[in-house]
Amino acid sequence: MLFIGACLIVACQYSGPEVGPPLIIPEGRMVLKFDNIAGNEDLVLDNKTYSNSFGEDLTISKFNYFVSNFKLLEEGGDSYTIPQDSSYFRIVEADPKTQTVILNGIPQGKYTGIEYIIGVDSLRSVSGIEKRGGALDPSGDMAGDGMYWAWTSGYIFVKLEGTSSKSSSSNGKFYYHIGFYGGFDSENKTVNNIKNVKINFAGEKAVVTGDSVPEVRLTADVLKVFNGPDPVSVEKNPGIMFDFTLSSGVANNYKSMFGFGEIKQNSLAK
Amino acid sequence: MPALVLLTGAAWLTVLVGACKSEDSVEPEDNAPTLLVWKKPANFPDPVYDLSKNPLTVEGVELGKFLFYDGMLSRTNVIGCGTCHQQQSAFTHHGHELSHGVDDQLGKRNTPSIQNMAWNPLFFWDGGVRDMDFVPFNPIENPVEMGETVNHVLEKLRLTPDKSAKIPVDYPNMFKAAFGTPEITTERMMKALSQFMTTLVSAESRYDKFAMGDVTALSVEEKEGLILFRKNCSSCHEGELFTNFSFRNNGLAPLKNEDLGRFDVTRRESDRNTFKVPSLRNVSFTAPYMHDGRYKTLGEVLEHYTDKVTNLPTLDSAFIQKSGKTGLNLTDIEKESIIAFLRTLSDDNFIKNNAFSDPGIGNAF
User: Fold this and answer.
1) A2, A104, B177, B338: least buried by Cβ within 10 Å?
2) Quick check: bond before B161 cis, omega within 30?
3) Identity of the residue in A128, A141, A242 whose CB atom sits nearest the CB atom of B131
4) How much is the average pLDDT of B154-173?
């Protein structure tokens, strides 16, 4: 009788057309630390003066950006794409808790690098409001950390603000709000300031196993937003938002702002 | 024929049960909102708003109506959507060339009508928003309109009922009735507003009776006006919605602070000084006219099209005659006929329907 009972239980568990042994992939997680820096030092908001390649003094009051669509690169050329609904993050320098991103449900493996985009992909930029929860919630305060443009219904990808004695604006501030995903159809094209980022872990490996949670530190150098292929002068352009040419120049700079810090291999209970 | 058919809860349940006869386990939830069947006017095209993502319910529309009129959506708790979008003016701000928002600050454009929203592929004079669910962010967050953040509106709504309010609306309860739980989120707030705005259909004018086959609905002069309208105006004010939703430069000379219109959104030279072609439904209620409200009467509007069209580089080709002269060729009598026809687009039911009216919480100035 016991034997028959056991068989019945097995039979009841079978509920689909799949054949073969159950496919269980052991899963783990990875922690990403977004560490905003200015050159070789940790970025300090408001109270520290930096300078750009024009020698203009800068203090930074806001440095926020969207990163999304993460893909982990594995040893041997394979990769794992994070499910898109869990792959949008808004990093806010003034809000440290936003700087730690936890990627859950990662297959066990040894990861050698990571790819993501700066910004919000065009599909999600035009999707229905039911797809705009979490970091994408458009309800934020534009004067604060809000990153949604109500007037053109799109996200700001990188928001950088501060003060400079060289700024030509009437209040001595500078404002760089860089967005635009390319427009919702061919009739309504805009510039596309989404940028792909690929970071190799410099030969190190992020090892994901059940009890090993790697913490990967990625740096974002705010000065590179100024000092790239299209250097930004706060005197010449204290505000860049809507002008496609100027904003794509800033995007060409921020494309290269990320770098690899290091990997800490933590043993944490899942 | 009514534009909206509201089945009662009991009638709807009958339909559901009838459809599921073979299954004995289907039991409607007690507190599920009551579905509202939305009917497209027979002479209208299919709407562009996807109602399957946001099915209208009695409770959702009711919530949307309260949100629409509630001043709590503004920083000063005084300016509601209904402050500048007043029903008796077909949801425009009657007499206001430019509307005044929080602290009496002036906007830069004339309040557009809220009607037949579900057919709109792009919203606002510059077409910056293409999904109705994202429309309210714009006025709420504009510093000279409502000057608020949606986040803060949500916080205020969560703290209701406010016993000191003139009508202490219990929003958590209304959200529960509309969406099943009292949670107040961005998505729910926007969907409720869209539900209410979707019900604001105007399709019962005398012109509609004519379009549906009643040849006596228009007078001889009005019919002459319709013929002239079709010949001179309908390349832009096209079809049953009286707009093709395109962006055109109709020859308005820029004012002191030049408004670049659609160019501000697309940065395309060809869009410089272009604005959305507005629907002309209820046009006799929506004065003043144009994106900056510069004309007070329809007579002035027609006079613009015959005599005042300014030839800027992006002027629409409809206003350039073969001879090179700008504007339309219309006699005074023809203009009067066109205006007579335009008045047949007035829909008294739309501006009087209690279902659309302020439930007593709004402020109109």
Assistant:
1) A2
2) yes
3) A128
4) 93
Please count the residues of chain B. Answer: 365
Query: Residue A37: enclosing H or E segment and its boundaries?
Result: strand A27-38
Q: Out of A130, A138, A153, whose CB is closest to B130?
A: A153
Place of tokens 């004519």: B210
Distance from CA of B142 to the nearest CA of A (A): 8
Query: Which of B141, B155, B184, B195 to mutate to probe the A interface, most A CBs <10 Å?
Result: B141
The domain limits of chain A are 26-267
Average pLDDT over every residue of B251-268: 92
Measured between alpha carbons, how far is B239 from B211 in angstroms, rounded to an integer?
11
**A129 to B190: CB separation less than 8 angstroms, yes or no:** yes
Closest CA to A71 of A86, A52, A53: A86
pLDDT of residue A147: 93
ipTM field: 0.80
Neighbouring-strand partners of residue B240 = none
Query: A20-60 pLDDT, tens per residue?
Result: 666 666 689 999 999 999 999 999 999 999 999 999 999 99
Compute the average pLDDT of residues B311-320. 95
pLDDT top residue among A177 and A269:
A177
Q: What single-letter DSSP state applies at residue B134?
A: G
Please state, in angstroms and rounded to a whole number, the distance separating the CA atoms of residues B266 and B270: 9
A203-255 pLDDT per residue, tens: 999 999 878 899 999 999 999 999 999 999 999 999 999 999 999 999 999 99
H/E stretch holding A214 reads strand A212-221
Q: Which 8-state DSSP code applies to residue B86?
A: B
**What residue spans of B200-304 are helical by DSSP H?**
206-211, 220-232, 263-266, 298-303
Q: Which of B48, B53, B137 to mutate to probe the A interface, most A CBs <10 Å?
A: B137
Asked if B144 and B98 count as a contact pair (C-beta separation under 8 A), the reply is no
Spatial distance between the Cα atoms of B57 and B38, rounded to a whole number of angstroms: 10
For A:217-246, CB contacts with B below 8 A are 242-244
Domains of chain B: 4-202 (1.10.760.10), 206-346 (1.10.760.10)
Could you say which DSSP state residue B177 is in? H
